[in-house]
Amino acid sequence: MLPVWRLHRHVGMGGDKYVAAVAGEEVEERLGDDLRDRWEELFDELIGEVAPLEGAHDLIADLKQRGRTVVLASSSIERHLDHFLDLLDARELLDGWTTKDDVEATKPEPDLVRAALEKAGTGDATILGDTPWDVEAARKAGLETVEELRGRLEEFL
User: What whole-number percentage of the chain has pLDDT above 70?
Assistant: First the structure.
């Protein structure tokens, strides 16, 4: 049994990295795919309870109004991302988005950030993330970051 704090500390890390990070390489090799499949099943049952952060839609709309290109660098699976885009009412505002299927490795590796930059048609950006894994991926891609913290993971500051 893993402590909740360890699981929480790794939220935002891509699923391809998460199991090894919280339970070790041996568990990843033995059970990783089964655990990810089960997580998808359980998350599908709960996805209706997910709510966007207050002001998220307004932030995207404001960035677009200011002439910014906005691409969502997500490591979600396609059907989950579709739900989130609809929940945010942001599909028409965004210039693009990524899913885990767009890359070889997810956060904290820089692959998703680089894929998002490619979709944006630029190599220069500021990344806004809500986990340290967003910040680490952006740093590995050589970009500045802004992190929105919600009372956790202070050691990354």
Answer: 93
